[in-house]
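Z., the sequence and structure:
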Amino acid sequence: DRFQWRRGGNSNDNSILLNVDVAMVNDITISLNEDTGEVGCDFATQRSGPDGRNGRCPWASLTRDFAVAFRNNNDLWLDKFEKVMTKMLNHGYDSSKECTTPPCFFASSFIQPSKTPSENPSTSLLPSKTLSDPPSGSPSISSEPTHKYLPSSLPSAIPSSGPTASLLPSMNPSKSHSPTADLSIVMANARKDIGDLISNNIRLAPKFVRLGFHDCVGGCDGCVNMENTDNAGLEIPIAALSHIVDKYDVLSRADIWALSALVGSEMTQLNDGNRKLFPMNWIGRTTCDGPPDKGPHRILPSPDLDTMGLTHFFFQEFGFNAEETVAIMGAHTIGVLKRENSGFDGPGGWTPDNFVLDNGYYNGLTNQGWKQKSIRNDDLPGIPDRFQWRRGGNKKDNSILLNIDVAIVNDISNGLNKNTGEVGCDFATQKNHPDGRNGRCPWASLTRDFAVAFRNDNDLWLDKFEKVMLKMINHGYDDSEVCLSPPCKFTIPREETVTPSKSPSSRPSSFPSATSSPSKTLSDMPSETPSHTSKPTTEHLPSKLPSISPSTLLKSESPTFDIGAVVSTVRSEIADLISSDIRLAPKFVRLGFHDCVGGCDGCVNMANPDNAGLEIPISALDPIVEKHPTLSRADIWALSAFVGAEVTQSNRFNRRSFSMDWIGRITCDEAATAGPLRSLPSPDLDTAELTHFFSREFGFDAEQTVAIMGAHTIGTLRRENSGFNGPGGWTPGKCLIYCSVLGIGLNIV
């Protein structure tokens, strides 16, 4: 039996903490029952006194200030976390010499230790009371559900280095010249011409919105690849806009496509006095060199994503938080789905009024019942059979939902067949209990409240939708300067960008699809045709840090081949695995930690219950280990931890790269799952024991210990593995674990 900490008074938040987490901010030493894990004092937040009065635990003076500092500064934490990860994954090897041309072989490496419990600090080793600290399972990515995220000018979410640095279109990062024409007149005329097209054919409005989304995944550049089945149907809006593109040569094609998405959103609202305007204050997007239908490949999200996959895609691609992701999905209020394009049969679209942009999409998600229905597509070559959701008990309503829509309000992750799209639980409405009883899907606690809020307030949704649309159509450009007299020219595209191909090999490791087959993917934005796609890969190799070196050393040989190309290829293949299943990312981080306790040697002991669940990442990496014998299994496991940490960051300009500059770790003689016993920290350590373990094992000081514990930001806990019931993980989303352990009341259960 276990004791864990749950959020006090918040039934919608299923995040948990363990005693070892709480110990970073609360001193639980005196009141901790080491046999059961029960703590006799109440959690003390920043509002509580530090002296432990009124039944509160005293504050943990050794470590709490570091948690506060990391809570207040994400960049500070990422810098520290990258360094301690490198230190941990070099544990047991000599990286003291400077590596000027990575990757370098360790100058020397040590003979593997026995890794018996006697070599580690005196922590609890009972299988019933131990747990590996780094995360496992599936991360939950988002941010706090507040409405204070309503900026007026939103920058692009492009990192300064790493895999997504090659994400943008082919832009010249030089100053844009101010045009000689009166831009405001040009913009007004172009807007009117686009509006005239929509007035003559309202079906163009959602097509323009969809075109804007497809173009801006990867950076808005006025190009899509019509050979990609995801883009079926986009030839219609492209052709409709072509004469406007030719007419206004002072605007780029990318500008006009972006403008059409805004006009399409604006004109489909009801003219009821509170119609929302969608202005485009920034122009100067750079059009790609090729024709509009010959753009490079872009990865779009699958129609069968669950809640985590959905939020992760938009977080990675555009830097959207959970609220913004739910808001952009409201574009499904307009548009329809054609079976001949996507395999989904949705002539009635997502809502009964499918050419009116309002909050009706959220009303359908939260108020009505839905039943899943199979769609046979044997008569359509290359298009798979599908599962979609129809309104239950209402034969007159031919609206549909896809799994990716249902995932906003229902947690379908456990019941989802990723190969077919069939969901094994029934749709749960607000009338059903959120815990998934009686065959119902549990509620999606990460996103459902936003859908309810938007259902209840159309103006609230339109305000948020307008802002995320602007953020989306500025993706890849620098709009950080204040624009006082719109329209303004972008001064430069993001300075840190490089010219990309937008091929799968240069795409970010987002989480677009659960399969590489075009049979199971779909673009998110509304249209007459959702779509199919494949998964991306990534390439990245940045910088290094040294580590602790044991005394017994062996010289390693320098390779005679280009090891850098091998490391880059392996990194890309690991990123592919994560792109197919984002839940592997925290599993890889956890595997790296378990392997490096005692020295990184590519072996764990699966007879040790601490290691329950590690068979999944080991099995996933086995083909890569066999394929690349020039790298040791220990090297590949370490690299997977780096990649897992890197790709679960948001796709922002200050994204950290987690490089592995040193290779040459020695794999043990045993099988991967038959390593010697390693002692891992108990989940019930107090502050002194927590810092002692990491000091003794890795040489970490208190700040570094608090930093490595931030790995708990990603991952979940499975009761069948550890006895802890944490399907929601340690955090509700993008908020670091330091937000969870500070300023929020917790109850032990």
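The CA atoms of residues 245 and 256 lie 7 Å apart. DSSP finds 22 helices and 13 strands in the chain.

Let me know what you think.
H.
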